[in-house]
Amino acid sequence: MPELAELRLTADYINKCSHGEGPGIHYTKIEKNPNHKGTHCITPESPKDYFSLSAESRGKELIVYIKEGDNITPLRMGMGMSGHFELTNTGQESKHAHLKFYRKDGTTLSFVDVRRFGKWKAGETWSTNRGPDPTTEANEFKYHILKNLDKKVFDQPIHLVLMNQKYFNGIGNYLRAEILYRLPEVDPFMQARIIIEKYPKLIELCTIIPRKAYALGGGQLKDWENPFKTDKEKFEKFIQCYGNSRMAWCKDKNGRRFWFDPKWYDTYLSKN
Length: 272
Known about the structure:
The chain is of the alpha+beta class and 272 residues long. The chain is built from 8 helices and 10 strands.
């Protein structure tokens, strides 16, 4: 968390804060919180003149484009477990603001990350080890999976493979639970290759469910809140499996809690 829908909403928020309804907002300085010691966080120097920002997401990654004149520097970001952006008056930034973009109008757009799992790297575009985005590159996403079905990774259970970002970029813990729950005939502990070949609807749901989550304002679960402050009641009604006390759960082989239909619990026990 955040996952695909939440990253897309974050990009929308950055673009709204940077463009609004007019020609664009001028930024003056970039500053990294010195208390954030992450060696993976490479921050560009502040441009010498006013600059502008824009953003786009792809799966679980976000790129913030820093534009000064004709020069554009990409800043690839991962949100970690709780990362989000927040616009405040300058001087009133959160104590957990680790990267700050100061605006000419006396406000600051900050990357806020309480748990410090977020990271960023200047000069980097999309990671080469991540697959296409299921929502914006649906055809490429489907083709990438089908042409690689012979790979050994698809020998694993489908509930594990859905978390593999090389093929299911942007699908995370709550999305895999909701996708599999909406396929009641699918044993989530069965080999991924068999499931994908027998139930092609699974690939479709990897596009449909994240798109629906995005339209409902994202998964306002635990540490993440929609930056537009939308009502989370509709999203909560949309979630049928993840975090539901009537569901079963187990720790997967990566240590993540996987929520699933209780009817598959005996299957889980027989395979573990």
